[in-house]
Amino acid sequence: MHQMLKKLNRLMTDLRSSGLQERCSFFVSGAFCVAGGKRFQGGFTLLEMLVIITLLAAIAAIASGTMYRVAETANDQLVIAEMQEIAKAIRQFKQDTGYYPKQGPFDLEGSGSIPLSNLPSYAGSSDAAKRRWFYSPANHYQITGSQSPLLGTDHLLESWMPESGRGWRGPYLTGFAEGYLDIRDGINGGTGAGDPLDGTNIENVDGIADPFEHRTEKVSSGDTLLDWSREVDGREREVWGRPYLVFGLDDSPWIVSMGPDGEFNTADDITLSIK
């Protein structure tokens, strides 16, 4: 390589001194350069040129890999920043109401004060479907929605009361990559165990996407999961992030991003405690 660089330097020096550098044509097989009828010795052999091309290709590959790692690192940093904002919104929800989302009066009727009829029409057609939708760890409607979950219930926390410094005053989170997600209830236990591709389908979950872009998941039944749309039952996005998941709202909640590989419960998952 050192000898090849010396040859290149000598050849370019000769060309500059001749004033014909820009008009020089290289003839690799003859190992010389002809410019304006003059012959300059010291060109490259075919083997040397192949070696240089290989080196340039290797350098390009290294640069490409470096750029990919830079982009991946930037996404890692963005995920942490977004998770901190989600955690801040959930903490603010608790500060205003005394409860985390989906807890206490913000749980469904029976455990809380939200009647199933208060859920959006797209939450499902049956009571069971609505419950699956509500308890999905990917569902953040109580912090992203502009309408109180307790609207029409006459509960004391239905809206903000300045005199008591209590009540719902959302939305608590705006400006994120939000949308409607199709997922399954395999992780609805809220403990962080399970698989979002297992169980029963849940459609149109109000989710928040992380910045790691992935294609949708096709499962054996033929269903498409972890797919997003801008509108309810809208056109599926070909590529989008994975949903942020929140677990442990009944005690010590935490947020999970599925990380660069887009798979749940793998080594590259990114987690953040909300407390």
Describe this entry's structure for a reader:
The chain is built from four helices and 13 strands. With 275 residues, it is α+β, with helices and mostly antiparallel strands. The chain has one domain (60-273). The protein has a three-stranded antiparallel sheet, with helices on one face. A hairpin with a 2-residue loop joins β2 (32-35) and β3. Mean pLDDT is 84; it is low at 20-40.
Give a short synopsis of this structure:
With 275 residues, the protein is of the alpha+beta class. The chain contains four helices and 13 strands.
Number of helices: 4
- Secondary-structure-based class equals alpha+beta
Strand content: 15-25%
Biggest β-sheet strands, sense, barrel: 3 strands, antiparallel
Please report the distance between the alpha carbons of the first and last residues. 58 Å
Number of separate strands: 13
Mean of residue pLDDT values: 84
The H/E string reads HEEEHHHEEEEEEEEEE
Total domains: 1
Low-confidence parts: 20-40
Q: Give the % helix.
A: 25-40%
Cα shape: elongated
Largest sheet, spatial ordering of strands: 1-2-3
Based on CA atoms alone, the radius of gyration comes out at 30 Å
